[in-house]
Amino acid sequence: MAKHKTTKISESTWRIDEFGMVNAFLCIGEERNALIDTGCGIGNIKEAAMSISDKPLSVFLTHSHPDHAGGIYHFTDSPVYMNSLDESLMLWGMRTDNEFRRMYAETRGINSFKGDLNELYSLIPESNPDCTSFRYEKIYDGVVLSLGKRKFKCIHTPGHTDGSMCFLDESSRLLFSGDTVNNSIILMRQPDNDSRLIRIFHETLLKIKEHEKEFDYLVIGHGYPLLKKDIIDDYLLITSGLLDGRLRGEYEERGFRKGDVARKGKAELWYQCDS
Length: 275
Hints:
Blueprint: E1 5-10, E2 13-18, E3 22-28, E4 33-36, H1 45-52, E5 57-60, H2 66-69, E6 80-82, H3 97-112, H4 117-122, E7 137-138, E8 144-146, E9 151-156, E10 165-169, E11 174-178, E12 185-188, H5 196-209, E13 217-220, E14 226-228, H6 231-244, E15 250-254, E16 257-264, E17 267-273
Parallel strand pairs: 4-5, 5-6, 6-7, 11-13, 12-17
Antiparallel strand pairs: 1-2, 2-3, 3-4, 8-9, 9-10, 10-11, 13-14, 15-16, 16-17
Helix pairs in contact: 5-6
Protein name: MBL fold metallo-hydrolase
Family: Belongs to the metallo-beta-lactamase superfamily. Class-B beta-lactamase family.
Pfam families: Lactamase_B
């Protein structure tokens, strides 16, 4: 049976790879551990985390999209931390959980999973688990979450979602950015195709850049887990170009992505996306 792949990426941080589709990260603390994101809920990610360390677990959610919060049903006894601006998204894709999981395996797993897709389908829960009514502690910009000596500064980084959060671990010099900054970012379509969300994301990039002396790598939600922080400058070139008219993307469809896309350097920004 296929299992999550675990890889150590720093002295006290492990990547938990959900079959090449999405990353979660186990952060080892002195008093307890934190799992940053929970995958989409294919297979048992809690079992993978506890196989690394059996300390009590907290869950930090970068955002509540179902590929990052879809495994939350495994953590009914763990404290969960999330920005409340993402609460309305908990129903997005969650009411038909297993339908989403199957779609995700079909669109992402077909390119990233090295085995038979039927193995992934067999790991989808038989009935839809409850991923919409979990209790959580509200976090916001500037909150510090502690695992003992190891602490995480919460940075509110809207754009991909209204409540997206990054978690800055200065002790390891890592910024866990989820889908806020990675190799390919999605911003949803806005009414009348206005540029409001692009401007919000541009301001988020500037905010992250203010912290760049405090971390060496971005730790991202999809693909190879460590990303050099100079990609932030590539995204700033895109957002500033879109905002002042120097740059214009083209409509594309790729997998479940459908929208305008602009590229600079190593950065790829999908905006005005319908899905």
